[in-house]
Amino acid sequence: MAAAIKALNAKIRSNKYTDYVCSTHFWGPVSNFGIPIAAIADMSKDPEIISGRMTGALTLYSATFMRYALAVSPANYLLFGCHAINLSSQLVQGYRYLNYFHFGGKDAKALAGEVGGKVESIADKAKAAVSK
Q1: Helix runs in 1-132, H state only
Q2: Residues of the chain with pLDDT under 50
Q3: Residue 33 in 3-state DSSP?
Q4: Residue 46: CA atoms inside 13 Å, Cβ hemisphere, count?
Q5: φ and ψ of 72, to 5 deg
């Protein structure tokens, strides 16, 4: 049985494409793509749930590992791409966080909610007046 496994491993490693797919240079970045996918999915959610500290930490993490992906030999361009996408999405999340909590986005949202409520109230009064 051990000889069969050894022969299968040698067969897989003899082809450069299957050797790459069976390596950590492939599976590390593939498993790491969950972070940018989650960040991209969070872009459509309310900015109130964004953690500024976590966004900052993930931005620095991605920038650091973009450099690491190019420093290893051979360079891991899949890992670099994963962290480039994550860095971009975290920068967008960081902008949304700053806009909402520090540049008046929270106040604008509250004001829009008040105005929307008044408009609905006026529309209800107009409908009641027309139906009389």
Answers
A1: 2-14, 16-21, 24-32, 34-42, 52-71, 77-101, 105-131
A2: none
A3: coil
A4: 4
A5: -75, 160
